UniProtKB/TrEMBL annotation:
Annotated catalysed reactions: alpha-D-mannose 1-phosphate = D-mannose 6-phosphate
Stretches that traverse the bilayer: 220-242
Region (Disordered): 300-320
Name this polypeptide is given: phosphomannomutase
Organism: Candidatus Marimicrobium litorale
Residue ranges with Basic and acidic residues bias: 307-317
Alphabetical list of SUPFAM superfamilies matching this protein: Phosphoglucomutase, C-terminal domain (SSF55957), Phosphoglucomutase, first 3 domains (SSF53738)
Involved pathway(s): Nucleotide-sugar biosynthesis; GDP-alpha-D-mannose biosynthesis; alpha-D-mannose 1-phosphate from D-fructose 6-phosphate: step 2/2
Family: Belongs to the phosphohexose mutase family.
PROSITE patterns, per the entry: PGM_PMM
Length: 810
């Protein structure tokens, strides 16, 4: 009985594994059949074009030995020249015939030149040209299937993959099309059908396996007895120990309810109870006492520039959890260590930081007022620090790009001289969007660089984005640069300066990657930023009709501010799209790493909805793919990714953080609510607004739907744009910590990955500190306007508990 059960289990396991392999391969073939490459093949009458498309699609199927795109004419397969259009045999010919007639075909195995092969076919229909169709047929070696048929214990039996077929006359016949392992068919052989195929898997246990299973089961019973005994003893100990531990913890909570000392609890579930009890007890004591609370003198001095009324505490618990112990810090919640509270500012000795504006060194870049903060002296020191650190990491050459801001030429000149003074060589790629610096670190022989840009910030701002060994450096790297600036310890040398043109290579690679089957009319608003020249030209090269708007580089940004996440800045684009009857419009921020989109009807698409469209496209071709998105995105996005077979990954806001997470998870797609889009499928995984716009054009031209129609299929919620709440740079992270420590969102699920996001049954809300400016950012979403208002009110109340002086604009 045990032997036959194991044989059946092994057969069923391998049948499911083979079915999964074939199913995934069929899904990919069907997705390829809907790709722009396949559609362009069936729209073309040129055999050379079809051959080129076959080679291009084959790159996405490294496991197959051949791939054919077979156009089907009015006569069907009867019109094939020579009878088979170059197919191997009548089996492939029949597979193409049945697929072309719309039949749901199964994989077919056959022997060709003494080798077993399997072919899979998929029908291709053009969305706009009804009379033209084709069949994609791919072929794999059955050795691939043999490798999958393995038992957990090695050579313990033999697997056989058997194909059944009906000859023209006679009864059903079978063929062994793949086999692995050793063993002979016996009374213990068991079979399992492979779903959606005419195959089945058989397993025959080996003689060694039969002998092993025939041994006495006594040792196994002894081990199982010991395990059961251990479980009983463990449960008995818990039943004796836990009530005593719980009683002890409750007594500690009660005895400490009127004290301000730190209380450590071993049972984290008691923290919220202790928190509420402490609040109620201290509140009662305050109201019943004639003495007012006072702040120790040392604490008043430490508060610094905060007004006294902001620091006066209403004593509230501060909760944190690590390992198995939860600490309830019931001291006065003054958040005195401002350096440590702000992960946007590098810690260090304040006496050594004189003259260096702390907030210039941010979470993942360096940014500040170009004239008053990014002075020549500070830029020179930053350049010396970057060059020194690059040399220590073995990076001899740095690529430097820049945007078109008025202050950029001065900063660039100082930076280039500083980098070369450390002995680093510099490759100047000129005025380019930031994505082209990232692209240069992938295509050139040099993998590090600096981009001079203020990104989406106002015209009087500027900054630096730094790449080391193809990775955008985040908080730790920025901290290292600032520490080196403070230390003043730099390497010396004489570097060389050369120039390199990277735009043609970038355009060429995008043109080879993107295929637009139907020309589209697109309004391009470059916002007078770094994309002004390249974006319209590239889309025109792809065959689109482009209507340019603010497509002249001007660092004063006369058209509108360069921040595309502010929907007020999209008013010109919206008006122009409707006026021109365009298919859609796109807007780029100052350095081109963000994208904003407007539909043909003039509707602004928020980036999490746009990400749904990209996710639907990418995951359909790559089942199981990870999609990373930030805490500001709709939770409908998570549901959509899951529905299409992907894995949603929620992560921190920030382009450097997002790229780190995408590398960690090997994600094929990522996106931020601010408009950063990251494609790991067919691209390099960095944020690129221009490439994202091209991918959008490809999706729409392939599906044959308007953008309004495509997004109209997604569920809708009531939600807000990103809300900016001005807060001083030196206080914003401290304030968020106070909100987290004091808030009590008992009705929702709290996530403090990045600020505090609370998910309720009918919506969610978020408050976090901006990494790019002196502000908090907030966003809210709900199923109805009434519930949205309730969630907003809940957040207003909790923020007021932390600091009632903060002026909220929602």
């Amino acid at each position: 009985m045990q032997i036959t059960q194991l044989s059946s289990a092994y057969a069923q396991q391998q049948a499911a594994s083979i079915q999964r392999t074939i199913s995934q391969l069929k899904d990919r073939v069907e997705s390829a059949s809907r790709s722009p490459l396949a559609l362009s093949a069936i729209a073309s009458e040129s055999e050379s074009d079809i051959a080129l498309v076959e080679r291009a699609i084959l790159d996405y199927f490294p496991e197959v030995i051949s791939l054919r795109v077979i156009p089907i004419g009015d006569m069907g397969t009867a019109g094939f020249a020579g009878g088979n259009s170059g197919l191997r045999n009548h089996i492939e010919l029949d597979l193409v015939r049945r697929a072309s007639e719309g039949e749901n075909t199964q994989p077919e195995s056959y022997k060709f030149e003494d080798q077993w092969l399997t072919s899979i076919g998929a029908r291709v229909l053009h969305p706009r040209i009804q009379q033209r169709s084709a069949v994609i047929i791919i072929t794999i070696e059955n050795q691939r299937l043999e490798k999958e048929m393995r038992t957990p214990t090695g050579a313990s039996g033999k697997f056989t993959l058997i194909q059944s077929f009906l000859p023209a006359k006679g009864s059903q016949r079978t063929q062994v099309i793949a086999a692995n392992g050793s063993g002979a068919e016996s009374e213990y052989t068991r079979y399992a059908d492979v779903p959606d195929t005419n195959w089945r898997v058989g397993f025959s246990p080996s003689s060694a396996m039969l002998e092993g299973l025939a041994l006495s089961p006594s040792p196994l019973y002894s081990v199982m007895g010991l395990i059961v005994m251990a479980i009983v003893l463990a449960l008995g100990f818990l039943l004796w120990f836990f009530p005593r531990k719980l009683k002890s913890e409750i007594n500690r909570v009660i005895s400490a309810s009127d004290q301000k000392s730190t209380l450590s609890l071993s049972i984290p579930e008691l923290v919220s109870i202790a928190k509420q009890l402490r609040r109620a007890t201290l509140s009662t004591l305050r109201h019943s006492s004639s003495n007012n609370w006072t702040i120790p003198e040392a604490e008043v001095e430490t508060i610094g520039s905060h007004p006294p009324e902001r620091a006066l505490p209403e004593t509230r618990p501060k909760v944190s959890s690590a390992g198995t112990e939860a600490d309830l810090d019931l001291d006065l919640d003054l958040d005195l260590d401002l350096d440590l509270a702000d992960d946007n500012i590098v810690s260090g000795d304040p006496q050594r930081q004189a003259g260096i504006p702390r907030h210039v060194f941010r979470a993942y870049d360096i940014r500040g007022n170009a004239d008053t903060e990014l002075t020549d002296e500070l830029v020179r020191k930053i350049g010396l620090a970057i060059g020194t650190i690059a040399g220590e990491r073995g990076e001899q050459t740095l690529i430097v790009g820049c945007d078109g801001r008025v202050s950029t030429p001065r900063i660039k000149s100082v930076l280039l001289h500083a980098l070369m003074a450390t002995g680093r060589d510099v490759v100047d790629i000129g005025l380019v969007p930031t994505p082209l610096l990232y692209f240069a670190t992938r295509r050139l022989n040099h993998h590090s660089g600096v981009m001079i840009t203020g990104s989406h910030n106002p015209a009087d701002q500027n900054g630096l984005k730094i790449v080391m060994n193809r990775e955008t450096i985040a908080a730790g790297g920025i901290a290292e640069i600032r520490d080196r600036v403070i230390e003043g310890s730099f390497s010396t040398g004489k570097g060389m300066l050369t120039g390199e043109e990277v735009i043609p290579a970038y355009v060429d690679e995008v043109l080879h990657d993107i295929a637009i089957s139907i020309p589209l009319r697109i309004v391009v608003d470059a916002g007078n930023g770094a994309t002004s020249d390249i974006a319209p030209a590239l889309l025109e090269e792809l065959g689109c009709e482009v209507i340019p708007l603010n497509c002249v580089v001007d660092g004063s940004f006369p058209g509108h501010p360069p921040d595309t996440s502010n929907e007020d800045n999209l008013a010109q684009l919206t008006e122009k799209v409707v006026e021109a009857r365009a298919d859609f419009g796109v807007a780029f921020d100052g350095d081109g790493d963000r994208l904003a989109v407007v539909t043909g009807s003039g509707r602004i698409i928020r980036s999490d909805v746009l990400l749904m469209l990209y996710a639907q496209d990418v995951v359909s071709r790559n089942p199981g793919a990870d999609v990373v998105f930030d805490v500001k995105c709709s939770r409908l996005l998570s549901s959509l990714i899951t529905q299409h077979g992907g894995r949603p990954v929620l992560w921190k806001t920030g382009h450097a953080f997002m790229k780190e997470k995408m590398r960690e998870t090997n994600a094929l797609l990522g996106g931020e609510f601010s408009g950063h889009m990251f494609f790991g499928e067919r691209w390099y995984g960095f944020d690129d607004g221009i490439y994202a716009a091209c991918r959008l054009a490809e999706v729409l031209s392939t599906h044959g739907e308007s953008l309004d129609e495509s997004i109209g299929k997604f569920p809708e919620t009531v939600n807000t744009p990103e809300i900016i709440i001005p807060v001083d740079d030196n206080y914003k992270f401290t304030l968020v910590d106070k909100i987290i420590n004091n808030a009590d969102f008992s009705a929702g699920k709290v996530n403090i990955m990045d600020g505090i996001r609370v998910d309720f049954s009918n919506g969610w809300g978020l408050i976090r500190a901006s990494n790019t400016g002196p502000a908090l950012t907030a966003r809210f979403e709900a199923d109805t306007q009434e519930n949205l208002d309730i969630i907003k009110e809940e957040f207003r109340a909790q923020i007021a508990l932390a600091d009632p002086t903060i002026k909220l604009n929602f």
